[in-house]
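User: Structure please.
Assistant: Input sequence and predicted structure:
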Amino acid sequence: MSKTLFDKVWDTHVVRKIEGGPDVLFIDRHLIHEVTSPVAFLGLKSRGISVLYPDRTFATADHNTPTINQHLPVADPLSANQLDALESNSKEYGISYWGLGHQKNGIVHVVGPEYGITQPGATIVCGDSHTSTHGAFGAIAFGIGTSEVEMVLATQCIMQPKPKKMRINVNGKLGIGVTPKDVALFIISKLTTSGATGYFVEYAGDVFENMSMEGRMTVCNLSIEMGARGGMIAPDETTINYVKGREFSPKGEAWDRALAYYKTLKTDADAVFDKELTFDGSSIEPMITYGTNPGMGMGISHEIPDAAHVEGGAATYEKSLNYMGFHEGDSMLGKPVDFVFVGSCTNGRIEDFRAFTSLVKGKHKAENVTAWLVPGSHIVEAQIKEEGLLDILTEAGFALRQPGCSACLAMNDDKVPAGKYAVSTSNRNFEGRQGPGSRTMLASPLVAAAAAITGVVTDPRTLIEELV
């Protein structure tokens, strides 16, 4: 029987099928951080249970970590407690731990791929919704809750109902200034934040085939923002070249066997999806959000739609615009910007900093803008320096911070003040996501760069044309 890529990976990991219930799924890789793991470890201790396969679990500190002066003790007591708990639990159970000061420390969904922990055809979970990032490698990757973290630690399995399958095809040539982030925000704007609920999405078409691994990770990262359980892209030569030779990737004969397996990971020609959508990539332009969920996005040259053209109740829509201080019919161009954030598990990779730097080169940061440029890992930080990007950024008035989740969410010191506007390359723009009362506009690194040097929302294509 013909199978989709998702079917092939899922079915080979089913340990047991429960009649009328969920599947018991074996998990190849378990990623943990300081926020969702402490209670799970307490559960193990209360029942006298050990971690079944500690070598399949990897721990890194990211959500609560500061992005300056990481050599100093963490000032916030709650953050310090969570970080200490992750370190002590990892040590007690023999789990690899990459804490502050460790060269491998960084955002969990950035360091996982960098070190070859993420591999095609694997099942990967983490107590973090954006675990979907790893699907870029043809893996089944999804976020889990604290009780499920405990279950995986104890059994290396999880009970899950098998999701429905959706394929989203995007073909055509992307226009100037259009990045993978824009492709993802465009799709979410079409499906809304609930349009893929109950589905696991496969992204297909030449737009994704032509993307780098960094770009594919950005797209899969945002799958959760349209309600999907996860997203995945079939592995190809781009994937294999990225994975080969990394620290935790297979070596020697094991690599040969793995490679043979990787090459089977594609949807059969006559496989059937529960739902299929197709979009024209040439119709996508640089995107920006104007509301309080990732589905409230539009092409940057457009005007904010009125309630009649938006799914959901008019009262909810009005509340969202009121929170943002925007109105129906407004143009986003020229809107004031107070903060710019480049980083997170969505856009904290080297490709994102290359894009940002390409636009600010030879220019200078706007005086009214506070910019937080936060690499996703020490590898990215080193690349920024080695490629000369830091010199360009410094000359343009920007400073580089240390790796961490930073201003993606208000769980560390990098908080946007109430009432202030931030153009953010992260993944969520909910009320208070980046700090109580903060106002977030999600965008690509290029849109962020344009805002950072002009001080207002600006179409990056106008600046790119200047360079040409």
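The two ends are 52 Å apart (CA to CA).
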